[in-house]
Amino acid sequence: MAGIMVVFDFDRTIIDGDSDSWVVTEMGLSDLFHQLRSTLPWNSLMDRMMKELHSQGKTAEEIAECLKRTPLHPGIAAAIKSAYALGCDLRILSDANQFFIEKILEHHGLLGCFSKIYTNPCFIDGKGSLRIFPYHDSTLGLHGCSICPSNLCKGLVLDLICASASEGERRNFIYLGDGKGDYCPTLKLQDCDFVMPRKNYPLWHRIFSDPALVKAEVHEWSTGEELEKILLHLINTISTQQSISVSISS
User: Fold this and answer.
1) What is the largest CA-CA distance in the chain?
2) How far is CA 165 from the centre of its chain?
3) Catalytic positions
4) Residue 144 CA: distances (Å) to CA of 109, 141, 183, 188
5) Whole-angstrom Cα Rg for the chain
6) What is the pLDDT of residue 138?
7) Nearest Cα to 153, choosing from 141, 165, 169?
8) For residue 174, which phi and psi values (nearest 5 degrees)?
9) Does the CA dihedral 136-26-15-195 come out positive or negative?
């Protein structure tokens, strides 16, 4: 539907768990990961884990096979496909990484539903090792947000998305997330927008610690079935409101 943009977080939103933790656990890196956890930023730590897998002879293809086993609730897959079929512009804004997200979505037949993925970039180097880099290049200066981690300010990205709209175009946003990093973009939403925090997760707690700071209408969810039901209801609500506005203006 024209004018409706649905922005998803990835970990613990589209997939039930955390893609980084899944690979670390499933590929036997837990001990090294916990040894280094306090010494490196998360993004750099995951790059270090990929180097370790390469040193063990593990390939990017083997990492991709591991990612295919990541649980994804069928209700969430159905919600994504339905929203796409209805004409919504679907995007992902995540502190995971490009390789993990794309391989999981591709496996579930969902990658083509998304027009854009904003996340930490990856590439396979000349030695065949998967490398993970921060979304914001710190050598170009800090992003200046005190809420977000240094590698990715989701609020800044949402600002850029809004700024990219055609002159006079106002899109209605539906933002779905769970983590602390999703609070900054939530504060950017307006009173015609909607935010869907996962209940009892950090974003939900931040919102309800001071609800007056959030302009968007809040709709909590816990399960894949709830996400599907609420998201499609909100899309229908926005569409109805848009139809009424067009009728009145004409």
Assistant:
1) 66
2) 20
3) 9, 11
4) 37, 9, 15, 15
5) 19
6) 65
7) 141
8) -120, 120
9) negative
